[in-house]
């Protein structure tokens, strides 16, 4: 389903002049994936060193996946997160995480100014609110924690969102929102002006190590590169990264509503389950309302209740609301709620990964792009200082795997799906990523993987990573991996 962002950026999408890869080429850095992570990485690398050769390979179109189906909040407020972070990682860690995300908001603002990108970037307050008595204490604890970290926050008894039973809320000031596709396409213009190359409709099907380089293969051509950055949201390489043991994918419903009623300013998200996120979109003189929520583990969707529930909620707030757009999108959820950024594995030098944003990937993709840029520049001896945030997000950390209960669940689920279903004989198609049995998603008419979140059209075309092969290919990606 096309998102509001795709529909409202038709002019910019039409004007972009991106080609398909049609010959073998050599480059310094090959970035796989043209979402915010891949495009931001290409941008920072090119800005830092105009002589470095950059190639981006995108299987569909720039920002046509999660980055183009996001809510577009540019925030350091990531739900109720900082009390959890202090408890799990310590105060120093939480302070740096907050600082990294605040810096990312500034970076995105600065980039849009420097590059003259008209992406509706706007500073606004951001609120987490609760409608339940039990979450009041959680909000109060979050308030104390964030204050301790030095961020200006307010505890509120009232917010402008016309929602019943609001108990209390925490406000982060000076956060922001933007149009994700317009921002990404603005960065693309700069990358191309600086000599970078971005190829669309160029799907990567394999990455092969050859001496000190990697050969990145699309269906017809090859890109030889010293460095590879896997920015495919979920890494397409199975081994030796083992990311399938460290995260899963979660989907959310999104709707955009038009109403004649004056809509509140500010961005809002509930702490209660189901999580519901709100923001406005300025379209000419009118304000639209974007509401996202009713998350479910990809592949485990229960009917199409999500859209209906969101519509009912919006109509209870704005009775004249008319739904003008809706979509579903997914993102990776890590076991410790912290992204994986940096070296893909100890066995694959010069291969980087950017993943696991837990639905907070706008600031995180900017942080990731800076970390990977600095690591590559360090290796090229163009810089001699490590990125101060790289240790926070180390992709090869083993701590998440210590969450034995979760890992056990993941292994159990995958094993049941692969082995038991294979022995018993399966009714549904088998995922080409790791062989799990797919389930049918009636809302989007797709086959979705309940283990790792790959998705396929009804005809078996792979549309979402980590799968690369289509269903008719039968054999499994992992079998040909390292
Ligand atoms: C409903 C929803 C709402 C969200 N709202 C917010 C928000 O308000 N604020 C926030 O901070 N975060 C939000 N997020 C999270 C954020 O949008 C994502 O984390 C972020 O956009 C991910 O960017 P990405 O570039 O890593 O992935 P993507 O945007 O998915 O880009 C990955 C790209 O890789 C390409 N690719 C995959 N496989 C291959 C291959 N084999 N060859 C070539 N290319 C390939 C894909 O086509 C895709 O374009 C939200 C997420 C969801 C699901």
Provide a descriptive summary of the structure in words.
The structure is a single chain. With 482 residues, the protein is an alpha+beta fold. It has helices at residues 4-8, 10-15, 36-48, 82-89, 91-114, 136-148, 180-193, 305-317, 361-379, 390-393, 404-424, and strands at residues 25-32, 54-57, 73-74, 122-130, 153-156, 168-177, 197-199, 204-210, 213-218, 222-230, 247-258, 267-270, 276-283, 286-297, 322-334, 340-343, 351-355, 439-441, 446-448, 455-457, 462-464. It folds into three domains: 4-69 and 181-246 and 337-400, FAD/NAD(P)-binding domain (3-Layer(bba) Sandwich); 248-332, 2-Layer Sandwich (D-Amino Acid Oxidase, Chain A, domain 2); 403-480, Rieske Iron-sulfur Protein. Helix content is 29%, strand content 27%. Helix 3 (36-48) packs parallel to helix 9 (361-379). The chain is globular, with a radius of gyration of 22 Å. The mean pLDDT is 93. The structure holds flavin-adenine dinucleotide. Flavin-adenine dinucleotide binds at residues 32-38, 57-60, 64-67, 70-73, 203-204, 231-233, 236, 252, 254, 292, 329-331, 354, 357, 359-363, 365, 465, 468.
């Amino acid at each position: 389903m096309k998102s509001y962002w795709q529909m409202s950026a038709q002019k910019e999408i039409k004007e972009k002049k991106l080609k398909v890869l049609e010959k073998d080429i050599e480059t310094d850095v090959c970035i796989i994936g043209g979402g915010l992570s891949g495009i931001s990485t290409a941008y920072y690398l090119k800005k830092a060193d105009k002589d470095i050769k950059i190639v981006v390979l995108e299987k569909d179109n720039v920002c046509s996946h999660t980055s183009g189906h996001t809510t577009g909040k540019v925030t350091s407020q990531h739900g109720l997160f900082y009390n959890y972070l202090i408890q799990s990682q310590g105060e120093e860690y939480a302070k740096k995480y907050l600082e990294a995300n605040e810096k990312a908001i500034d970076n995105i603002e600065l980039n849009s100014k420097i590059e003259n990108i008209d992406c509706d970037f706007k500073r606004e307050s951001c609120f987490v609110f609760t409608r339940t008595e039990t979450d009041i204490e959680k909000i109060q604890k979050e308030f104390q924690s964030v204050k301790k970290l030095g961020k200006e926050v307010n505890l509120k008894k009232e917010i402008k969102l016309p929602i019943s039973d609001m108990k209390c809320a925490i406000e982060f000031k000076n956060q922001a929102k933007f149009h994700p596709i317009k921002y990404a396409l603005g960065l693309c213009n700069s990358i191309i002006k600086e000599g970078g190359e971005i190829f669309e409709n160029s799907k990567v099907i394999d990455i092969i190590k050859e001496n000190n380089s990697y050969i990145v293969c699309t269906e017809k051509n090859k890109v030889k590169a010293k460095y590879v950055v896997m920015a495919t949201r979920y890494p397409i390489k199975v081994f030796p990264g083992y990311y399938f043991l460290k995260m899963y994918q979660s989907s959310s419903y999104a709707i955009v509503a038009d109403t004649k009623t004056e809509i509140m300013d500010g961005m809002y998200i509930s702490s209660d389950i189901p999580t519901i996120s709100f923001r406005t979109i300025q379209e000419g003189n009118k304000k639209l309302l974007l509401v996202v929520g009713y998350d479910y583990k990809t592949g485990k969707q229960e009917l199409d209740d999500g859209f209906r529930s969101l519509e009912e909620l919006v109509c209870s707030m704005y009775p004249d609301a008319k739904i003008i757009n809706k979509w579903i999108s997914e993102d990776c959820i890590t076991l410790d709620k912290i992204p994986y950024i940096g070296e893909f594995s100890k066995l694959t030098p010069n291969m980087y990964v950017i993943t696991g944003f837990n639905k907070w990937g706008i600031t995180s993709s900017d942080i990731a792009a800076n970390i990977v840029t600095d690591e590559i520049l360090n290796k090229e001896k163009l810089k001699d200082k490590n990125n101060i945030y790289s240790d926070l997000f180390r992709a090869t950390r083993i701590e998440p795997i210590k969450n034995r209960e979760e890992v056990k669940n993941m292994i159990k689920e995958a094993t049941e799906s692969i082995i038991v279903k294979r022995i018993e004989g399966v009714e549904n198609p088998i995922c080409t990523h790791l062989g799990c049995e797919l389930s049918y998603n009636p809302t989007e008419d797709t086959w979705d993987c309940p283990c790792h979140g790959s998705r396929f059209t009804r005809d078996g075309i792979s549309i979402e990573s980590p799968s690369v092969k289509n269903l008719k290919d039968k054999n499994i990606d992992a079998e040909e991996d390292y």
